[in-house]
Design goal:
The protein has helices at residues 15-23, 37-47, 97-107, 126-138, 203-210, 214-220, 296-301, 307-314, 320-329, 333-345; strands at 4-9, 27-33, 67-70, 111-117, 141-149, 157-158, 160-168, 240-243, 259-260, 266-267, 280-282, 291-293. It is α/β, with parallel strands linked by helices. The protein has two domains: 4-182 and 307-345, Rossmann fold; 193-294, no CATH class. The radius of gyration is 21 Å and the shape is globular.
């Protein structure tokens, strides 16, 4: 396979390049466009590059590119956001998707992959999705889209995202997205054996959690087959999972340190994990319980990044707040790996995305 020339737009910490590296796909990162100085610092540490922060609205380079990956800002499309949308010229963060169209029009790579929140397909926001598809079609691309969930591709996080792959029309390109497979990795498998005391909540914070109303309790406690989505506003009332058994089901015994959760999944990681916004891990739900936040390392693991990548980013002096944010802002590496395996190693057949 020839070396793939990759351009990552809204690159974050480089989930695309990490997925390609994990699969052993020859590639060169020709540029990474990311305005967040902390995210690009972690990107460089992970991938051995030396890129500077860049504003995509001012990016206009003449380079040769085979593959463009972009995860344009999702906040204004997200259910957790204020629903400002992403209409062209609106000035919202999500409207920056149109900058990708401008860059694709200039560079005309063979492949373009876009990741965004599922709510982009809602009645309110899907006109922007269809506008994107139409623009890609007019530039000579055939597009394929599907909602994929991280929990279906080896990561115990309930994170649904719409992935849209556009392939330059040379002959009649076809593509079929990978099929889900059984999850074997549970939340307990990503937890660290030893956690610093600073990640534990105070008695006062625990008391506030336990005294919340029933409805608040239900929206904050993750239980059942799949945990609820972790939202950006959760910093006020962090969601929790129990460690140890509160409601033992008949025939099931829970050992100390085990995660009580039918599927052992965690909800979607948001960009706002820092401060009081981290997902929470909880001991038995009693006044003597100890409650702690998921650590930054655990959040990175839940995004499919290995400990080596995390350690490289942390070694730059990166704060926990930034490490949490970078995890929530990223794309699940495992899902990208499944897509790339199908794209570069499979013999895909399928239907394109039509308006």
């Amino acid at each position: 396979m020839e070396q793939l020339k990759v351009l990552e737009l809204f690159s974050g910490i480089g989930a695309c390049s990490k997925a390609l590296t994990n699969l052993g796909i020859p590639h060169k990162i020709v540029d990474a466009v990311e305005i967040d100085k902390y995210a690009i610092k972690s990107f460089n540490a992970i991938h051995g590059t030396n890129f500077s922060p860049q504003d995509i609205t001012k990016w206009d380079k003449d380079i040769e590119v085979d593959f463009i990956m972009h995860g344009s800002p999702c906040q204004d499309f997200s259910v957790a956001g204020k629903g400002a949308g992403g209409n062209k010229g609106s000035g919202t963060r999500s409207s920056l998707m149109y900058e990708t169209i401008r860059i694709v029009d200039k560079l005309r790579p063979k492949y373009v992959l876009w990741e965004n929140v599922k709510n982009l397909l809602s009645e309110k926001h899907r006109p922007n999705y269809f506008a994107y598809i139409k623009a890609m079609t007019n530039m000579g691309y055939k597009s394929f889209g599907r909602v994929l969930n991280a929990k279906d591709f080896g990561v115990p996080q309930n994170r649904e995202r719409i992935y849209t792959l556009s392939i330059k029309v040379d002959d009649d390109p076809q593509f079929e997205f990978p099929e889900p497979f059984k999850l074997e990795w549970r939340l307990r498998d990503v937890l660290e054996d030893t956690v610093d005391e600073k990640y534990y909540l105070t008695d006062k914070q625990v008391e506030k959690f336990m005294n919340s109303t029933f409805n608040q309790y239900r929206t904050r406690l993750q239980e059942g087959d799949v945990s609820q989505t972790i939202l950006a506003r959760d910093w006020e009332d962090p969601k929790c999972v129990r460690i140890g058994g509160l409601y033992d089901r008949p025939g099931h015994k829970h050992q100390a340190g085990s995660v009580w959760h039918t599927e052992g999944l965690v909800g979607t990681l948001s960009t706002m994990q820092g401060g009081n916004q981290e997902p929470i891990i909880m001991d038995e739900y009693t006044p003597e319980s100890r409650v702690r936040k998921l650590t930054p390392r655990e959040c990175w693991r839940l995004m499919g990044f290995d400990d080596e990548a995390f350690d490289r980013a942390k070694s730059t002096g990166m704060s926990d707040t930034q490490l949490y944010k970078q995890a929530g802002n990223s794309i699940v590496v495992n899902v990208l790996m499944a897509i790339f395996e199908r794209l570069f190693y499979g013999e895909p057949t399928g239907q394109s995305t039509d308006e």
